[in-house]
Amino acid sequence: MERVLRVNTWIMSALWACLLAGCAIESPPPRSRAIRPTPAARSMPVTAHVSEPAPIPVPSPLTPEPVVMVAPPAPPAATGMEWPSNWANAWIALESWGRFNGLEAPRQYGSGFGATYQLSTSNGVMMLKPGGQTLRFAGLDFWLGFAPRLIQGRPYIHAIDARKTLQPLLGTLAFPIVRSNRTIVIDAGHGGKDSGTRSCVNGEDEKQYALDWARRVQRLLTARGWNVVMTRTNDTFLALADRVDVAERAKADLFLSLHFNAAPGSSDQAGVETYCLPPAGMPSTLRRGFADDPGEVLPNNAFDDENFGWATALHRSVLAATGAQDRGVCRARFLGVLRGQNRPAVLVEGGYLSNPAEARSISSPAHRQALAEGIAKALE
What we know:
Layout: H1 2-20, H2 39-42, E1 91-93, H3 94-100, E2 107-109, E3 116-121, E4 124-128, E5 134-137, E6 140-143, E7 149-151, E8 154-158, H4 159-172, E9 183-188, H5 206-223, E10 227-230, H6 240-250, E11 254-261, E12 272-276, H7 304-322, E13 326-331, H8 336-339, E14 345-352, H9 356-362, H10 365-378
Parallel strand pairs: 9-10, 9-11, 11-14, 12-13
Antiparallel strand pairs: 1-8, 2-3, 3-4, 4-5, 5-6, 7-8, 12-14
Helix pairs in contact: 4-7, 5-10, 7-10
């Protein structure tokens, strides 16, 4: 009993000594509140790379859908890696996309929303501007589905533009036709009761010029070993679906539709435009009053990269052959001859018949021959 009293007395003395000396039991630090990641962020692969600061979404009148942004993956060991799954339907920092492809950080020229950003690649210089709808690459203009945004002072691009426009321009343009008996369908626009537009200089119809251009292309490509199938060889009306059927029956490797342009009420617009189908999720560059559903998936979307590759090659070559003004590689979903194609398909607008100077050039056989040679050169 006496021993127990001594132990208790010792314990009490120790406690009083501790209190007098200012001892306290340390409480655990408060738990930090976890930030719930977005669905895109949850799918991001875990890496040792330090994520970029989470940017603040900036509303844009061009795209009413909410902005989703993700942190970039770690820099790849080499280019050509699989596209990051967390980049779907997101806004990506231009620097992050460049780093993914082994490029140096973009250079900035100017300040604020008036700034231009430049990336140097092995294929050429890439330039874009926040709020602008076009990308300049290696001397050509390309229309984007979404205008780049400036977020926290840094340029961001939409993932669809990054995957379907910027990425192919780095050198992954697909040209799958390698056989010696290549088949191409050349489609002379309009015909018969469908005259197309009309020259403001001499009143001649687009359908006449388009057919002459197509025949010149036919001769050049036949001499180069192509099997050329024409949708029409005379002034005959042919429905859009019938033109697609011609390519289907011929089992064509490539479909090319040739047209001339017009700008109602304006005589100033001029130049060459080249069209392919927009990828699913990307708005059309041009609608012309037609409904445009970016969520629509069409048969020709199976050839998105090939479409863009051929459109780029054809556009560059036609501009070089004619010296025409560059109106860009564009995307349009309403073009009936492109929508249902089960092969790469491109439509070229060879100039504006509503522009007096360009209409006079188009009326010249020498100019139409130059247009044809530009097409043939691209398809070598």
